[in-house]
């Protein structure tokens, strides 16, 4: 286990160590220096000349580092080539050595390289992770919280604790101050519990949905919001049978309630302009000290509803949940809403604005051509097949994930051969047979060739339950290995979403298109 000496860089030299460097700069022979200053009285063996030089140069390196810690690159450069070649050079070095010996312990600055304050091994790991300055390290810790070190390969918990304690000693400098939620392991067990708090404009800190209490003021908006809090908690609880949906609805509901309390408005009083303001807030939740923080236990201090600003696609998803919430409020209070069109107008605004903008047809065709261009990988060919089925035939992502080979048929006598898919949709209007366009059929064939899949019903090994689209490789996680062991496993709806979004990001690197605003659904709408 590393100790502080392995993690933190050595600091100021001792008086004896300064004497060693001074003697070497003045031209004294290394063995003479070793016998006078470096010899251990308990050691019977004399140092060799090589050993003496190595110890002296190690002290030289520490001296250079100490000079840089004090922003004295002139002295550091002077001692990079230690021994003087002239009396003038020797005199300058001795004078510089005398001046720097009078300095106290250096003070880290935000722009200092991590190598100035931490050991060589740790510094290399930090820099490999893109952490080059002390400010970079402080920023990472404040963004990620107590588990920040997990984002730096080969940094252990013990080294992280030493770093956090060291940063804590620099708290007098605002730029290097770590937030209260950055704790060492021993402090995590003592983390204060989060207590219930009434919703209101002057909240000291945010609380999750289960710890929200009705506002304590008697203002009309506050009394209405208190009643709505009960409705919202019941609305979220009704989704408990679907854990992912429940967590998503709970997260968006508590954000919306906290924001509404800060605005001094009830949910039913939200007008279209209020929802526009909330959408903008999701992309930039300020003040960040109140709203943002690293993920952590919901019942402990420093819980925050955001980790940071939401991307455009996440804002759209959040507003769809808010639309569902407002519809539920409308249905629960139809009598009063009949006298006011505020919530209906707000819902219409959310629904209209949450629909992704249609992509120009030429942009879609450019994307499809890029996917089909060579050289392409099996993953890219899978993305091409999925994108063509969306763009040419309007198939939905969820429907695409449900297709199996049993839904596919081919007419080999046709010229060229024609592929067909049987869509078993709930809607009568969508249910039926789809005749595949030639490029979609060709892309599917290439994908099946990559998978070595027998798609012809007369072929040996034909499996009717095999997925229409499936990954060639699976992630090396427990879930990935479990899915790979199932012969009929294929892309899930979320897997297809990720596949197409990743392809769009690579496409956007060489084309003038928006990355964040893209959703695979836009391929159907174009």
UniProtKB/TrEMBL annotation:
Domain Core-binding (CB): 216-330
Biological processes, Gene Ontology terms: DNA integration; DNA recombination
UniProt entry tagged with the keyword DNA-binding: yes
Keywords: DNA integration, DNA-binding
Residues spanning the signal sequence: none
Pfam family membership, one: DUF3701
Name of this chain's protein: Recombinase XerD
Organism per entry: Cupriavidus metallidurans
């Amino acid at each position: 286990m590393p100790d502080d000496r392995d993690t933190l860089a050595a600091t100021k030299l001792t008086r004896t160590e300064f004497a060693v460097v001074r003697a070497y700069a003045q031209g004294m022979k290394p063995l003479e220096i070793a016998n006078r200053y470096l010899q251990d009285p308990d050691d019977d063996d004399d140092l060799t000349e090589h050993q003496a030089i190595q110890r002296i140069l190690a002290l030289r390196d520490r001296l250079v580092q100490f000079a840089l810690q004090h922003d004295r690159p002139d002295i550091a450069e002077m001692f990079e080539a230690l021994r003087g070649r002239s009396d003038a050079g020797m005199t300058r070095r001795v004078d510089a050595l005398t001046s720097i010996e009078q300095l106290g312990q250096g003070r880290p600055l935000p722009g200092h390289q991590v190598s100035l304050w931490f050991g060589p091994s740790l510094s290399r790991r930090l820099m490999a992770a893109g952490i080059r300055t002390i400010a970079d390290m402080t920023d990472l810790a404040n963004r990620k919280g107590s588990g920040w070190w997990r984002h730096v390969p080969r940094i252990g918990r013990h080294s992280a604790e030493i770093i956090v304690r060291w940063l804590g000693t620099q708290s007098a400098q605002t730029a290097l101050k770590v937030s209260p939620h950055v704790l060492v392991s021993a402090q995590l067990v003592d983390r204060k519990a989060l207590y219930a708090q009434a919703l209101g404009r002057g909240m000291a800190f945010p609380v999750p949905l289960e710890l929200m209490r009705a506002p304590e003021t008697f203002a009309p908006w506050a009394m209405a919001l208190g009643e709505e809090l009960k409705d919202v908690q019941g609305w979220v609880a009704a989704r408990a049978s679907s854990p992912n949906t429940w967590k998503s609805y709970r997260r968006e509901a508590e954000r919306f309630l906290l924001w509404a309390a800060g605005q001094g408005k009830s949910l039913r009083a939200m007008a279209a302009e209020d929802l526009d303001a909330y959408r903008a807030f999701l992309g930039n939740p300020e003040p960040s000290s109140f709203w943002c923080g690293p993920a952590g236990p919901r019942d402990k201090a420093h819980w925050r509803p955001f980790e940071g600003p939401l991307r455009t696609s996440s804002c759209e998803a959040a507003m769809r949940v808010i639309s569902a919430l407002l519809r539920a409020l409308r249905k629960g209070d139809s009598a009063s809403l009949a006298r006011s069109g505020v919530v209906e107008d707000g819902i219409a605004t959310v629904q209209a604005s949450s629909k992704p903008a249609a992509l120009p047809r030429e942009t879609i065709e450019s994307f499809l051509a890029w996917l089909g261009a060579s050289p392409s990988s099996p993953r890219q060919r899978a993305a091409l097949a999925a994108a063509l089925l969306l763009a040419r035939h309007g198939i939905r992502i969820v429907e695409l994930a449900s297709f199996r080979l049993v839904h596919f048929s081919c007419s080999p006598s046709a010229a060229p051969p024609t592929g067909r898919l049987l869509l078993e949709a709930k809607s009568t209007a969508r249910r039926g047979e789809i005749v595949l366009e030639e490029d979609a059929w060709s892309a599917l064939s290439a994908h099946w060739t990559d998978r070595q899949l027998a798609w012809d019903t007369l072929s040996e090994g034909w499996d009717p339950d095999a997925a229409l689209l499936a990954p060639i490789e699976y992630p090396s996680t427990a879930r990935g290995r479990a899915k790979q062991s199932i012969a009929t496993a294929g892309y899930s709806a979320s897997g297809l979403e990720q596949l197409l979004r990743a392809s769009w990001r690579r496409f956007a690197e060489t084309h003038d298109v928006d990355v964040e605003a893209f959703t695979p659904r836009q391929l159907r709408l174009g």
